[in-house]
Amino acid sequence: MHKRLQAYLEYYREELQKAYTSRFDKLEIPANLKQSMLYSLDAGGKRLRPILLLASYEVYGQDVQKVMSSAIALEMIHTYSLIHDDLPAMDNDDYRRGMLTNHKKFDEATAILAGDALLTYSFELILDDPLLTSEEKIVLAKELAVCSGPKGMVGGQILDMEAEKQSVSLEAMEEIHALKTGELIRFAIFAGAYLANATDEQLHYLKQYAYYLGLIFQVQDDILDVSGEEEKLGKPVGSDELNEKSTYPKLLGLGGAIEQKEKYVQKAYESLKLADAEDSLLKALTDYFSQRDH
Amino acid sequence: MHKRLQAYLEYYREELQKAYTSRFDKLEIPANLKQSMLYSLDAGGKRLRPILLLASYEVYGQDVQKVMSSAIALEMIHTYSLIHDDLPAMDNDDYRRGMLTNHKKFDEATAILAGDALLTYSFELILDDPLLTSEEKIVLAKELAVCSGPKGMVGGQILDMEAEKQSVSLEAMEEIHALKTGELIRFAIFAGAYLANATDEQLHYLKQYAYYLGLIFQVQDDILDVSGEEEKLGKPVGSDELNEKSTYPKLLGLGGAIEQKEKYVQKAYESLKLADAEDSLLKALTDYFSQRDH
């Protein structure tokens, strides 16, 4: 990994943690609920989504404090979705990134409520941010609701459940991914650039970029589940096979999946160029995500 | 019940159903998710919260279309909380109002996601309403997040769980109720009056009113669980006793609980008077809720 990118990732992971920690310090809520919310937030690993948001902002804008509430809100939405996903009724996972999942560390009821609380509080964070104009608050909070709700992530989760244990086409699989993981990535890229006053044309091509980036992320996930190292992943390899999930390697073979990823990377590059973001950290992040080993 | 009140309740229940149905008709989301969301929305009985919102608006304002998105959003939040509350990990209820609970009708995973979807979509509804000004959207969506999130309803649910199987003081119990059920009632009363341009003084006293109304609602719930008729309630009587919950009858005796309710009713009347809402439907609703048999 480039030194510059690595330093960037480390720096912003720390900034994000500081930012949400200081907000939680001031938050007067039941202690057990706060602990449960923070447990899963702190367990967060790569901070992919908020870092994409920061990177997208920095293509066109300056002081990242402007986007910090949106970045944290996005990470909270992602975290809530993982807590609910891990529940026995859903994926029934006891561990995530080598740590106990929320419902194993606390209990199921607390985990459900901690997820609900993170989801709800994410909107308050944005709507209460003094650094945002009224227009910005409305656009961002509404977009967050669209991307994460029934038209977006939650819709994708339902489709994903329905597609389990049956073979689906590449197109159907990509539609599921576009909703389930793609919409939050789209929010990240949109929110950053929007708050940096990117033009409508730039936003248009960034939306395209976000679409391909989401697919890159997913195909690499599928590839790692076949060929990754358990120690780096922090989870068992081969779980997709076990769960009879439709994946890129299953539909295209491992070689085909890697080829497909390369196609998406080229598309992502093209979109970035058209959005005047060719030399930005977004490009380095695209490479990073397409080559990550965990 | 007064004929006028009855007609009012019936009329607005229909209006509310029409309003959310027309929104769901236009909503392009996975069919199974929509069915699950609508199943629980349609199963809604009294529509207490949105009707309070409409009644609060009508004390000072005219065309109720102005508050319809807030009223539906509130009912969706209430509905999501019931779906999650009924889950096996929480109250583990198979029936609600004589109908199968969401996770029994569908499955647990779908119920969790339908709850998440209702919660998230409620914010979109308000933020996307062309009848609201930017300022109104922000105030309402933020207030909804505060009332329903970790500082409000969800916080109350956590405290309620912690208080189970131990005896708590009347004060502690009332704090739990104020959060768990009171905050959504506060939102209802606030949102209606705010959108009708009530003065700050009126809003102040209405907040007091909402506090007492919430307690009235709770004490009557507790009373019905001891002395109600199962057929009217649509649920077994005595479940609080079974769940070792702290209730008004347990702390004060049945007679003491009824006396306490009367005190709250008087306080509620006083607050309404100070808010210039003495002769409004809110007063009739106060009586209705304090005397309801289901």
From TrEMBL, chains A, B:
Keywords: Isoprene biosynthesis, Magnesium, Metal-binding, Transferase
Listed transmembrane segments: none
Molecular functions (GO terms): (2E,6E)-farnesyl diphosphate synthase activity; metal ion binding
A GO term from the CC aspect: cytoplasm
Superkingdom of the source species: Bacteria
Catalysed conversion reaction: isopentenyl diphosphate + (2E)-geranyl diphosphate = (2E,6E)-farnesyl diphosphate + diphosphate
A Gene Ontology biological process term: terpenoid biosynthetic process
EC number(s) recorded for this UniProt protein: 2.5.1.10
PROSITE patterns reported in the protein's UniProt record: POLYPRENYL_SYNTHASE_1, POLYPRENYL_SYNTHASE_2
Co-factor(s): Mg(2+)
UniProt similarity note: Belongs to the FPP/GGPP synthase family.
PANTHER family with a match to the protein in the record: FARNESYL DIPHOSPHATE SYNTHASE (PTHR43281:SF1)
Record's protein name: Farnesyl diphosphate synthase
Native source species: Oceanobacillus sojae
Phylogenetic placement of the source organism: Bacteria, Bacillati, Bacillota, Bacilli, Bacillales
